[in-house]
Write a structure and sequence with these properties.
The protein is an alpha/beta fold. It has 3 domains: about 150 residues, Rossmann fold (3-Layer(aba) Sandwich); about 240 residues, Alpha-Beta Horseshoe (pyruvate-formate lyase- activating enzyme); about 90 residues, no CATH class. The chain contains 19 helices and 16 strands. The strands form 2 sheets. Strands 2, 7, 8, 9, 10, 11, 12, 13, 14 and 15 form a 10-stranded mixed sheet that branches. Strands 6-5-4-1-3-16 form a 6-stranded mixed sheet, sandwiched between helices. α5 links the parallel β5 and β6. α8 packs across α9, α16 packs antiparallel against α17 and α17 crosses α19. It starts with a strand and ends with a strand. The relative contact order is 0.12.
Length: about 525
């Protein structure tokens, strides 16, 4: 009999101030950190806990996964008497982990407990929590070794995805999950603040070693989900392996299919590979770590970030641009210059995180040795999108919090809602690529054209919803371009836009009086080995 295995995330609710969590711990990538202050214009979506699903899919024995259970639901599962219970968590959910471990020991004392995820890097964890194993690094190999299974395996991607909750405040029903492919782990660059890079030992672990094998999975997932928007996750710098990227590009072009892929890539590798090749591959969104005007990371040295962002926009590729605030050399005199430089790049979405020392990184070790970590800060308050937990030579904790809020507010109010920027970027891509001498890029332009006919609804709704005259001018400029080439709004567009307007105003009312937290749904999945 194979052992009974349960892999679980931490329990909900999230984004509340209680003994386990903080209201800043929002379980949404966009609303937490990319469209943080954008209110109803923020993209509201949730994700599967893909780490536990990847492990379960690749064990080859029966395994149960539990995403975002309530405490009551979690206890019900623990009572089933599992041989192994694995918990995945990030650092600021430490108090939830502590409660979960105590419950397992009380209810199912014979269960062996494995703790994984970034929470596993907390110093002296085994002296704090009564766990049997701590997994730092590749969880698949760790679990296979622990269960006595061969460490060699053929990777299989689980069917995981993104759920959209709302668009402009309107609940979304009937739209399937947007699929994700876990293509690898980590990055070999080893930036001092980067948890994923150091968690995996500064290695670039590739689950798909060739572009051909990755294309085969992209094609399978696209057909299975019925969608061409696919996120390639886990691999924090997809373009490190340029040969794999080139082979994938060739496969996509030869297939004649148009995909809309989201990847992570460093600026130096984007330049090495080429923006046009990214468009041919099907990249629709790329996350690039700008870090800062006054940083000195090799990946960004000598690169004109503003020109690179403009070139990506020309091909209709949306950018998530991340910058770091409160670098050691930031002062009150130069930090706004850094923010100005970021905004001048005109990214589709922005991340402004504090220079965040977390366990397992060189930054944590350095600041610890320098005595710069503020004593007594609970793990749940170590949240890079709230306030710093270290001493800075030029900023107080409150000033750090204020400058981050200012950066996000400026991004929203000066550049407009990210939804608007998405539309504008794809319009620019359509305008440029429709004239290409390459059939595959012209097909991509047609893909953008199909989207524009739907975007007219969003533009009409935003025209009335946006809170400032400047934003309304931005909306109308884009609306004028889109309607000039794709026709004006008809009765269908206006009716749908009216519904979005009403839902947006209702959501704003709810936000003011009851908050805007959306809890992720609980999901139980039973993995069984294929015959």
């Amino acid at each position: 009999m194979p052992p009974k295995v349960l892999l679980t995330s931490v329990f909900k609710p999230f984004a509340v101030d209680d003994i386990y969590s903080r209201k800043e711990s929002i379980m949404e990538l966009y609303h937490n950190q990319l469209t943080k202050v954008q209110g109803i214009y923020s993209l509201r979506n949730g994700y599967d806990s893909y780490g536990i699903h990847v492990i379960a899919q690749n064990l080859g024995i029966p395994c149960t996964t539990l995403d975002f259970p309530s405490q009551k639901r979690l206890i019900r599962e623990i009572k089933k008497g599992y041989d192994y219970i694995g918990i995945s968590s990030i650092v600021h959910n430490f108090q939830k982990i502590k409660w979960m471990v105590a419950q397992i020991r009380k209810i199912s004392p014979r269960s062996q407990i494995i703790l994984g995820g970034f929470c596993a890097t907390i110093p002296n964890l085994k002296t704090i929590l009564d766990v049997d194993y701590i997994c730092i690094g590749d969880g698949i190999t760790f679990m296979r070794e622990l269960l006595g299974l061969p460490t060699e395996f053929e990777f299989k991607n689980p069917d995981v995805g993104t759920r959209f909750f709302e668009i402009l405040g309107m609940p979304v029903f009937g739209i399937p999950r947007f699929p994700q492919i876990i293509i690898g782990l980590g990055c070999s660059y080893g930036c001092d603040f980067c948890s994923p890079s150091h968690f995996f030992g500064r290695r670039h672990i590739r689950f798909y070693k060739t572009g051909k094998s990755l294309f085969k999975e992209i094609d399978r997932v696209s057909r299975n989900f019925g969608l061409d928007f696919i996120s390639l996750l886990g691999d924090d710098n997809f373009l490190i392996d340029l040969d794999r990227a080139e082979e994938l590009r060739q496969c996509v072009v030869q297939s004649g299919k148009v995909f809309n892929l989201m990847i992570f890539g460093s600026a130096d590798k984007v330049i090495d590979f080429g923006v046009e090749k990214l468009a041919e591959m099907g990249v629709g969104t790329i996350w690039i770590g700008r870090e800062g005007l006054f940083s000195n990371y090799p990946k960004n040295r000598g690169i004109d970030m503003k020109a690179l962002m403009a070139e990506l926009r020309r091909y209709g590729i949306k950018t998530i641009l991340s910058s770091i605030l409160l670098l050691d050399n930031h002062t009150k005199e130069n930090i706004r210059e850094d923010i100005d430089e970021h905004l001048s790049c005109r990214p589709a979405t922005s991340q402004f995180s504090h220079y965040a020392p977390v366990p397992g990184t060189p930054l944590w070790e350095r600041m610890s040795k320098e005595g710069r970590l503020i004593p007594g800060i609970p793990w749940e308050d170590m949240h890079a999108f709230h306030e710093p937990w270290y001493y800075h030579p030029h900023f107080t904790v409150q000033e750090g919090r204020d400058i981050q809020e200012e950066a996000y507010q400026r991004d929203f109010h000066e550049l407009g809602p990210s939804i608007l920027r998405f539309i504008d970027t794809e319009y620019e891509g359509w305008k440029y690529l429709r004239q290409s001498d390459k059939a595959h890029l012209r097909a991509r332009a047609e893909f953008f054209a199909q989207q524009m006919r739907l975007y007219k609804i969003l533009l009409a709704a935003m025209d009335y919803l946006v809170p400032t005259d400047h934003m309304r001018e931005l909306v109308r400029n884009v609306r004028k371009k889109v309607e000039g080439d794709f026709g004006g709004t008809n009765i269908f567009h206006l009716t749908a836009a009216g519904a979005l307007f009403l839902s947006g105003r209702l959501r704003e009312f709810r936000n003011r009086h009851w908050g805007d937290v959306i809890q992720p749904p609980t999901k139980v999945k039973y993995y069984r080995p294929s015959k």
